[in-house]
Amino acid sequence: MSLLNILTILLLIAACILPFIIINMRRKKSEQKFLQVLLSHASESNNTISQYDLSNQQAIGIADISNTLFFLKRRNNHDVIKQIELAQIERCYINKTSRSSIDGNYSATERLELRFTRADKNSSEEVFELYNLEHDSLSMAGQLELAEKWHSIVSSRLPSKKGKP
C-alpha cells in the first residue's frame, strides 16, 4: 500500500470515530454541570455528598456525615431539588405503578417512585419520582435498578435499622 492510501484510510477512520468522541465529551460535560447543581445545593446546607448516581436528567446522592439524602430532577429545563434528613424517616419503599393492556398480555410501568414515610405520622410522605410515563421516555433506562440500589442504601441508614442485624 502506498503512503497516500494509508493516510486516506486513517483519515476516514478518524472522521468516523471523531463524532462519537465529541458526543461523549459533551455528554460528560453536561453530566458534570448537572451534578454540580446537586453538589452546590448540598454545600449550601453545609453537607458534602459522598455517594451519588446520575441517570436521565436526575441525580441522587447522600451525605454520610449528616445522613441526608438529596434528589435533583430536571424536567423541561426546570430543576426540582429535594432534601431529606434520614433521621426523620421511619420507612423507605419503592412504589411502582403499572397498567395492563385490555387483553392482559402487556404491562407498562406508569410511575416509579422512592417513597419515604416520616416517623411523625402527621407529616406527609416525601416522594422522589424516578420515572413517569407522561414526562419521561416510553421505556425506562436503569431507573428500576437505581430505585433498588438507593432503597437498599437508605433502608440500611434508617434509625429503625440501627443496632439491628
3D architecture notes:
- β1 (51-54) and β2 form a beta hairpin.
- The protein has a four-stranded antiparallel β-sheet with strand order 1-2-3-4, sandwiched between helices. The chain has a three-stranded antiparallel β-sheet with strand order 5-6-7, covered by helices on one side.
- The mean pLDDT is 87.
- It is built from two helices and seven strands; from the N terminus they run αβββββββα.
- Helix content is 35%, strand content 35%.
- By secondary structure, the protein is of the alpha+beta class.
- The N and C termini lie far apart (69 Å).
- The protein has one domain (3-161).
Report the helical percentage. 25-40%
- How many helices? 2
The biggest beta sheet is recorded as: 4 strands, antiparallel
Oligomer: single chain
Mean pLDDT: 87
Q: Rounded to an integer, what's the Rg over CA atoms?
A: 21 Å
In total, the number of domains comes to: 1
* Spatial ordering of strands, largest sheet: 1-2-3-4
Distance N to C terminus: 69 Å
Order of helices and strands: HEEEEEEEH
Q: What percent strand?
A: 25-35%
- Rough outline: extended
Question: Low-confidence parts lasting 5 or more residues at pLDDT below 50?
Answer: none
Helix and strand composition category: alpha+beta
Number of strands: 7
Give the helix/strand layout.
Layout: H1 3-44, E1 51-54, E2 58-63, E3 68-75, E4 78-85, E5 89-100, E6 107-118, E7 126-132, H2 143-157
Antiparallel strand pairs: 1-2, 2-3, 3-4, 5-6, 6-7
